[in-house]
Amino acid sequence: MTALNTLSPAQDAALPDMLPDMRPDMLDEALLAPPQAPLAMPTQVLEPPSGGLAALLRGLAALPSRRARG
Amino acid sequence: MPGPDLHQAPRADRATGITRAGAIAFAALLGLGAGALVLEASLQDGAHGMDVARALLIAMTTSWLAWGAVQALLGLPPRRVAAAGAEIDPRAYRTVLLAPICNEDPRATFARLAAMDISLAEAGLTGAVEIAILSDTTDPAIAAAERLWLARLIRERGAEGRIRYRRRQDNTGRKAGNVEEFIRRAGAAYDFAVILDADSLMEADAIAEMIRRMAAEPRLGLLQTLPKVIGARSLFGRAMQFSAAFYGPTFARGLARMQGVTGPFWGHNAIIRVRAFAECCGLPALRGRPPFGGHILSHDYVEAALLARGGWIVRLDEDIAGSYEEGPENIVAHARRDRRWCQGNLQHVRLLFAPGLRLWSRFVFLQGITAYGVALIWAAFLAVSLAAHVTAPPPDYFPEPYALFPVFPDDRTAQIIGLAIGILGLLVLPKLLIVLRGIATGHTRGFGGAAGAVLSFLAELLLSSLMAPVMLMYQSRSVLQVLSGRDGGWPANQRGEGALSLGEAWTASGWIVTAGAAILLAMTQVAPELALWLLPVCLPMMGAPLLIIYTSRPHHGWLFATPQETAPSRVILLARGLAAQWAELGAETAPAGPKVGGALHGPA
User: From the CA of B596, how many Å to the nearest CA of chain A?
Assistant: First the structure.
């Protein structure tokens, strides 16, 4: 639990006991959750469908064998 | 909210175009000049392949240094930023602060959020600006602690329904995926979202000004602020903090002037127009496996490019005050973060030819890749220069048969020393000019006055010179690791990590010591006359553990002072006070009641 680096490991382990007035069940889940207000977020195209440069290189690399097959 | 018409998508204006062309020409010409000088000097003893390689490498490295220098030079004159009208009421817009966290210390992070909530309340923005904590925490113990500290945060701030929290069970896409999931689920509820990092801190006035500027320019998709580094405690951290505070605004102004409407996104301390972001920034996973495939690591650069592709303005407004972040506290933490950034930037090689991107966005990707590639170019230049010297044939004083008189090669020592001074000048001159301007305008007041700023400038110069070879080694290793297909992952930041022991420093840098000693030993055998010239590179490498330890130690005092240290703003004081009080609470072993109260309680 290194991220809690200002507390000792023993204190980390005892954290729930140290905050007796705070319990997770005190949280109102309905109020806690983000509102239900969906927004479409289409996935963008960042690579050409053909694979771009990689496909070109693959194609060039395949040329000799295609020629050999005649 | 209508999106901008793609046919009328904002393009760089004439001034921005001229600035870009001028900056590129400046860097290219200086690089060509340096390369030509080295080539001409090398040809005195005949043409060799290594001479050409050396000239090409020095041309590339000099261009890169000139590129950095020109950004500072462009930032020296003041810049007029289109401020928003005061008549715009930020409460008229629904805004959410997004705080993505992943295995962070919830006490420190939530104390910062509580401070921002108080600041917002004092500015009358309660209700208009919500806070959403987006947890990607995977460690169950930290997740449990998050819930406890969240309960305290919400109860103390009376923030039910105003501070939100959700934890993802699977953290697909890391931070970008975290924000994306929130937007898909709740994005329609908000006009704007301020994206934070776990260590971000922002004044309510800064948030209000960002909202106003977004409202004033409907084509603005993203507005990036320049966060000042705060909270540094070590020598390394304070030197970086000084550098960011003193030089950062000038470099950022130059960058803003050059980027224009195709500005940068640094992943946090920025505001987005939620619908624009949703429309343009759904990131795909790249084909193949990491490090070049998979999820996009440095997503912020890509999101800025995608917003620009969609016709939205992306702008850097470095003049907005009250935006803060924290930085690494030692060289090892810095190198660890740099490893992630290296992999993220090199991954952009896959996106250089992404369809529809602005030419400038592609150039920015290339620049980010070069920022790491240049470490290898420097290393190659050193290696080739040494090899060229060692393998150079002895001078031929009688190139013509039966000549009566010897022909002495022209001495080019003066030109080469001039070149070295010029290269050093590219590194030092921009900073020196910023210091001189600071003295002339009184800007040094918060930096320990004119004398304090000058001494901090000199100390930073010395420190960065000592650290440069060590950083070069870390960066070179990072690049080689990525190129060889090693995925460094995206480990959580170890914030607040401070002084290192000798064992930790040796573990992190023993290989640099070995490399430095091996290079020096080899040169004393092969070309002892060059060994002396290599000392500025090899000695810091051999002393890397000591340098790491020394600079990681706590540091105080007037050297490297910044205005944020000497006169911290309200939100910094609030965050500091809350963190201290909550630390006291958490450190008690006996059951404890609430300790926060009094002056730190702002209006709800």
Answer: 13
A2 interaction partners in chain B (CB closer than 8 Å): 494
Contact status of A29 with chain B (Cβ, < 8 Å): no
State the average pLDDT for chain B.
90
B274 at A interface, C-beta within 8 A: yes
Query: In this structure, are residues B450 and B465 in contact, taking their beta carbons and an 8 Å threshold?
Result: no
Residue B97 to residue B382: CA distance in whole angstroms: 48
Helix axes B449-483, B528-542, angle to 10 degrees: 100
- Cβ atoms of B331 and B473 within 8 Å: the answer is no
Closest CA to B179 of B91, B88, B303, B78: B303
8 Å CB contact between B573 and B580:
no
Residue B267 corresponds to which tokens in the numbers above? 């992943």
Closest partner residue to B287 among A6, A44, A47, by Cβ?
Answer: A47
Give the pLDDT confidence score for residue B9 in this predicted structure: 58
Give the three-state DSSP class for B434: helix
Q: What is the largest CA-CA distance in chain A?
A: 81
Burial of B142 (0-12, 13-18, 19+ CB in 10 A): buried
Put simply, whether A49 touches B (Cβ < 8 Å) is no
Residue B51 has pLDDT above 90, yes or no: no
Q: Which residues of A touch B593 (CB under 8 A)?
A: 21
3-state secondary structure of B49: helix
Cβ–Cβ under 8 Å, residues B51 and B178: no
Averaged pLDDT for residues B208-219:
96
Check A3 against B492: CB less than 8 A apart.
yes
Residue appearing with tokens 């715009």:
B88
The interface pTM score, or ipTM, of the predicted complex is 0.83
For B359, the 3-state DSSP assignment is helix
Give the largest CA-CA distance in chain B.
101
Using alpha carbons only, give the angle B570, B328, B361 rounded to the nearest 5 degrees. Answer: 90
Test mutation, A41, A47, A58, chain B, max B CBs within 10 A: A41
Percent of chain B residues past pLDDT 70, beyond the cut: 90
Q: Which residue of B136, B183, B274 is the best one to mutate when testing the A interface, meaning the one whose CB has the most A CBs within 10 A?
A: B183
pLDDT digits (tens, 9 = 90+) for B503-553: 999 999 999 999 999 999 998 988 888 888 899 999 999 999 999 999 999
CB contact under 8 A, B145 and A39: no
Q: How many CA atoms lie within 13 A of B395 on its CB side?
A: 10
Location of structure tokens 């700023």: B453
User: Can you tell me whether residue B156 is helix, strand or coil?
Assistant: helix
Please state, in angstroms and rounded to a whole number, the distance separating the CA atoms of residues B440 and B436: 6
pLDDT in tens, B291-317: 999 999 999 999 999 999 999 999 999
Cα B349 to its chain centre, rounded Å, is 19
3-state secondary structure of B314: strand
Nearest CA in chain B to A20: B591
Give the side-chain half-sphere CA count within 13 A for B352: 14
Nearest CB to B151 within list A22, A33, A52: A22
